[in-house]
Design goal:
This protein has eight helices and 18 strands. The protein is α+β, with helices and mostly antiparallel strands. The protein has two domains: 171 residues; 145 residues, no CATH class. Strands 1, 4, 5, 6, 7 and 8 form a six-stranded mixed sheet that branches. The protein has a five-stranded antiparallel sheet with strand order 2-3-16-15-14, with no helix packed on it. Strands 9, 10, 11, 12 and 13 form a five-stranded antiparallel sheet that branches. Strand 5 and strand 6 form a beta hairpin. The two termini are 33 Å apart.
């Protein structure tokens, strides 16, 4: 929801900036273009603090900065992973400047990327394996492009190469967007920095469909998680989430937007990651003033974990799962009817399955 809100705000700003009436003009006429004095800065901002492999070697835990101030420009944070080998940290800043044609009084946006950097960390040692200046690579290749959606960066394998992937298009002034048919996919090998271009894939619908089973942790979070955790922090259903990593076989990710969203009695999770327990205790012991540390936690599980396994990692030790009030709506049910749910078995029985689960998945890299 926060990502969606940021995109909505940005789109409103974009539309306001470009809302002047078109005026037909002679193509040979020279027009005076001036900066209209309005700039919006947006992008992705990440900082990894820790990266550990679980005691059994089948899961990873990443600790990352989540300090986004209310006054900050539209900036989002999310780490990416090549399970179980790398964590990929993307930092990108984009400026959109509103320009004005003095002769026609028409305004439009000009965009430019200020920085676009990638750090690749090896799992198990939290060491930087590679640093990639993507903006420099684009300049060397004379590629004046812009990501089409800064919430949709991902990682996947391409010809056995672990890659950062995003959709992109040529940068043109917003008043010329109607003529922009340049969308394509950009793949960057995170080990070598090599860049590949491929035909554009519009697969968001497929990825959302594969995440349908996780709706119990998203659309139902305010009801399901709050009543099971007994903590209002879990009522922000889009801050903490569970999702399927569709490009890697059997991988699911649990995201805690703040480390203190984890229960102090979460024995199973802390046994998996003893260093997470040490960090958690240290924060709890020093945090007498109840100041949030702004540290987010990602847990990536392999081996196709069940809903029961996932909830056992989220809930405190000994807490029984309550399904009171949990429903599957008609849109997401197998028979087009709403169903009351009393167990995970019923959830799996009535939740509409993905049409082609695992369609894009590659084996986990170890």
């Amino acid at each position: 929801m926060k990502r969606a809100l940021l995109l909505f705000v940005f789109c409103i700003i974009f539309c306001i900036g470009c809302g002047s009436k078109d005026k037909k003009m002679d193509e040979n006429t020279t027009h005076k273009i001036v900066d209209d004095g309005y700039t919006v800065t947006w992008g992705i901002k990440n900082k990894l603090h820790g990266l550990w492999i679980s005691e059994d070697g089948n899961a990873l835990c990443a600790i990352q900065d989540n300090d986004i101030k209310e006054s900050e420009d539209p900036v989002i944070r999310y780490m990416l992973y090549i399970p179980l080998k790398y964590a990929v940290e993307v930092n990108m800043t984009v400026n959109s400047n509103r320009m004005r044609d003095v002769d026609t009084d028409k305004t439009y946006l000009e965009r430019n990327i200020e920085n676009f950097d990638v750090k690749v960390y090896g799992i198990g040692g939290w060491k930087i394996k590679n640093e990639i200046d993507v903006l420099e690579i684009l300049k060397e290749k004379n590629m004046n492009i812009m990501p089409t959606d800064y919430t949709m960066f991902t990682t996947r394998m391409y010809e056995n190469k672990p890659c950062l992937v995003f959709g992109a298009e040529d940068i043109v002034p917003s008043n010329e967007d109607k003529n922009n048919n340049t969308k394509r996919m950009i793949y960057i090998d995170v080990e070598t920095g090599e860049l590949f271009e491929k035909e554009y894939e519009d697969i968001i619908g497929d990825l959302e469909d594969e995440n349908r089973i996780n709706l119990i942790y998203t659309s139902q979070f305010s009801r399901f998680m709050e009543q099971n955790m007994g903590r209002v922090l879990w009522s922000d259903f889009d801050a903490n989430y569970v999702r399927t990593l569709s490009f890697f076989e059997g991988c699911r990710q649990i995201h805690f937007t703040d480390i203190e969203d984890i229960s102090e009695n979460n024995t199973k999770l802390f046994n998996m990651f003893p260093k997470l327990k040490s960090l958690y205790d240290g924060i709890k012991n020093k945090n007498e003033d109840k100041v949030r540390e702004n540290i987010a936690v990602d847990i990536v599980l392999t081996g196709n974990p069940s809903e029961e396994e996932i909830i056992s990692i989220i809930l405190p030790e000994g807490r029984e799962v309550s399904f009171e009030g949990v429903k599957i709506n008609a849109e997401n049910s197998v028979d087009g009817k709403e169903h009351d749910i009393h167990s995970f078995d019923e959830w799996r029985e009535y939740c509409k399955p993905a049409k082609d689960p695992g369609k894009y998945a590659s084996p986990v890299v170890k």
